[in-house]
Amino acid sequence: MIYTVHDIHDIYLQFQIFFTVKFKMPVETLFSSDLISSEVQAALPKGHTIRPLSSEDYEKGFLDVLTVLTTVGDMSKAQFLERFYYLKAHNHEYFTLVIVSPEDRIIGAGTIFIERKFIHNNGLVGHIEDIAVDKNQQGKKLGLRIIQALKHIGAKTGCYKVILDCSEENVPFYEKCGFTRKEHEMVWYI
Ligand code: ACO
Predict the structure, then answer these.
(1) Which residue, 100, 104, 105, is CA-closest to 149?
(2) CA distance 6 to 18
(3) Residue 112 phi, psi (nearest 5)
(4) Ligand 1 mutation pick, 138, 173, 177, max ligand atoms within 8 A of CB
(5) Which of 52 and 5 is assigned the larger pLDDT?
(6) Residue 89: pLDDT band with limits 50, 70, 90
(7) ipTM reported for the complex surpasses 0.95
(8) 61 φψ region: left (φ > 0), alpha (ψ -120 to 50), beta (else)
């Protein structure tokens, strides 16, 4: 049997997940914390932290926070880690960060995905996705801080623009975060 690079990567991923679930493995972060804006960290309420997603955030309520967006599904730790390690293997493209409360619970999250284009001289475009703040924590500027931190990553990684799709009711929030309306969103569901 001939194994491709993808097969070997998949086998390695399964080993990583197995060992992380079975044994107490060191905590891993999705990307370098050097990319987290110190200004945003300083502006957070006392005792709160903003940091890259980590391999132990399954236990800290990361998926619960995402339920303010849509259905997450009944995910196991192994399923969470499968996606986590995939994103980590592509952590020049995927940046998911979280806000952690003084009680060490995840209360906010957001992602920027960096698209590599041919146009604009091989330009980079940042796509902001899945911004979520725990229902009980909304209205405390945490959403604003998440967006500021993601814009910082977009600028640091060399994007020439950062874009996102949102509902009409969230337009005022994104305007407060410095975005302006441009064109229309289209969708095709499979
Ligand atoms: N309408 C009008 N203004 C708003 C709204 C709104 N729906 N939401 C926030 N704002 C304003 C706030 O009043 C505040 O204004 P101020 O600076 O004048 O006081 C400013 O925007 C910043 O608000 P935050 O307190 O940072 O907002 P919050 O922490 O509640 O986060 C968010 C906003 C992310 C929309 C949150 O309410 C949430 O998680 N909602 C449910 C999930 C969701 O809709 N996520 C966005 C999906 S779109 C995407 O992911 C790209």
Answers:
(1) 100
(2) 18
(3) -120, 130
(4) 173
(5) 52
(6) very high
(7) yes
(8) left
